[in-house]
Amino acid sequence: MADNKIETGFSSDAKKDPRRVVFVTKKTSAKVLGDRGPQLMTYPHLLLREAIAFEILVIAMVVIALFWDAPLEQLANPLLTPNPAKAPWYFLGLQELLHFFPPFVAGILIPTLVVIALVVIPYFNINVEGEPLWSKHPSRNLRTVLISMVLLLAFLAFFDAWTIILPTAIIASILIFSYTAREKSGSWQATLGAKPLSWWIMTWFIAVSICLTVVGTFFRGPGWSWVWPWRTHVG
Amino acid sequence: MATNVSLLLETLRESKVWKSVFRRGPANSNRTRSMAVFGNLFLHWMPVKVREKSLHVRASYYLGSISFLLFLILFVTGILLMFYYHPAAPNAYRDMKDLQFVVSNGVFLRNLHRLAAHLMVFMVFAHMFHVFYRGGYKPPHEFNWVIGVVLLLVTLFLSYTGYLLPWDQLAFWAVTVGTNIISAMPVIGDKIRFLLLGGHIVGENALLRFYVMHVLILPLVALVLIGIHFWRVQKDGGLTVKSKDSDGR
Q1: pLDDT tens digits, B42-56
Q2: For the whole model, what pTM was predicted?
Q3: Residues B79-130: pLDDT tens digits?
Q4: Is residue A115 within 8 Å of B149, Cβ to Cβ?
Q5: Would the CB atoms of B119 and A61 count as touching at under 8 Å?
Q6: Residue range A221-228: average pLDDT?
Q7: Which pLDDT does position A235 carry in this prediction?
């Protein structure tokens, strides 16, 4: 192996002949992992950190649990409907959607599509490569983005879904701003301009989810009407 | 005093009994430290070595670990709560009152379980979003991302089935609102709702079904998926390496 030539042949004696043959085809190009940097032993370095995290977590939770009591209302009564009847906080975003869209769309279609969208993220090359949105054909991409945004906002406006319109419009303005800022170098604006499409979609999704959940939790009262949380009302 | 204790510990670790339990002596060399991980049933899915970078707080914020630790807390507090609970109406509600007025530290136990449950839902969401922004779904981690999404759903169902168990107005109407949505599913909606509730309304059958799912089926599914999830992290080569990891992340 002085001239570093790769040889092929048959040998089953691993001790005597430890050479291995690797076939490099177009589809299975050799993967370079690169320098993985310094490594530490799991025991004790990782396990110690986990133990400390666990201790801090337990202490914090015990303190909170001592002072913050879990609510317990009257015995369940099918004849006495509270107004509003609310789901747990993590479903209040969906309940807020129900206010705008028919039950099938808000309760079945949108959650199903969200789960499917999450599952397929790693199986699309555009998400894996993560090219900046404005790196190739910036003006054409901008046109596509603008058209889809206008369509989306028009669709939401048709349903008066303004708690979705608000975060959508905010993210849309930042997205358009990132187009103008894409060529500035070495600033936070350049960082924003280099974000891939998947980043924008996920950020939009999180913004909408947070807005819907917060509104559903704190700002909705009897008949799902708008209330200010600091004003107590008789239910 | 301190030296006496460490001397005692050292003698203990060198003892026959210690070695018979842990299959090794003291973990004072990299070889025995490796054995401490792969020779232990509960740790063997972990890598023996980890990259220093992936130990940095910013690499994970420990969100996945915290989610799992919350799961453990929920497991323990949940089993303790089961000692005081009857999945029947209206006994379930009476048990809540007993926790409040009869059982020592009953309220504290329920507070802890409920707090951990809400926190776990929050942490699992946070974990998913953080993994996304870090690019943790990229090959070879694709399938582990999918398992993670399923685990998110299992966490939501676990929390939601537990929500009914106190059998108070809050529980009853939250579950009524949620399960009414299922009826909106075309053709099979009402059938699935019937299957889930064991009837047309949220009643005693629904309570029993939610209880069985909450304490047996879903934790079992979660445990298996968590096992695969952790094991895959190691098999897929640890936490994701970012191309700009040179800046210290």
Answers
A1: 888 888 888 888 888
A2: 0.89
A3: 999 999 999 989 999 999 999 999 999 999 999 999 999 999 999 999 999 9
A4: yes
A5: yes
A6: 90
A7: 46
Which residues of A, range 17-46, sit inside 8 Å of B by Cβ?
A: 33-34, 36-46
What pLDDT score does A24 carry? 62
Pairing between β-strand A39-41 and β-strand B49-51 as defined by DSSP bridges: antiparallel
Cα–Cα dist B232/B143, whole Å: 9
Nearest to A106 by CA among A24, A186, A216: A216
Cβ atoms of B165 and B171 within 8 Å: the answer is: yes
Task: Report CA-CA distances (Å) from A48 to B2, B35, B63, B72, B130.
Answer: 20, 16, 16, 17, 23
Residue B45 lies in a domain: no
Q: Judge whether A88 lies within some domain.
A: no
In the predicted model, is pLDDT for residue B142 greater than 70?
yes
Q: Is B138 among the domain residues?
A: yes
- Residue with the bigger pLDDT between B50 and A21: it is B50
Residues 4-63 (B) with a CB less than 8 A from some CB of A = 27, 30, 33-34, 36-37, 43, 46-53, 55, 62
Enclosing domain of residue A218: 93-224
* A113 touching chain B per CB within 8 A: no
Cβ–Cβ < 8 Å for A72, B166: yes
Look at the block and give the residue holding tokens 């320098």: A35
Give the range of the structural domain holding residue B84, as residue numbers without chain letter: 60-235
Task: Please check whether residue A16 lies inside any domain of the structure.
Answer: no
Model ipTM value: 0.89
User: Domain for residue B144, yes or no?
Assistant: yes
Q: Tell me which residue of B99, B162, A70 sits closest to B91, measured CA to CA.
A: B99
Q: Which residues in chain B (103-132) have CB-CB distances under 8 A to chain A?
A: 107-108, 110-112, 114-116, 118-119, 121, 125, 128-129, 132
DSSP code at position B43: T
**Position A130 confidence tier, pLDDT thresholds 50, 70, 90:** confident
Chain A residues with CB-CB distance to B137 below 8 A: 121-122, 127
Which tokens sit at B45?
């899915």
Query: Does any domain span residue A53?
Result: no
CATH of the domain at B161: 1.20.810.10
Rounded CA separation B121/B152 (Å)? 8
B242 assigned to some structural domain: no
- Structural domain total, chain B: 1
DSSP, collapsed to helix, strand or coil, labels residue A59 as: helix
Mean pLDDT of B161-188: 91
The position carrying tokens 């570093």 is A4
Per-residue pLDDT, B186: 86
Q: Is B216 on the interface with A (CB under 8 A)?
A: no
* Count of domains for chain A: 1
Check residues B164 and A190 and name the one with the higher pLDDT: B164
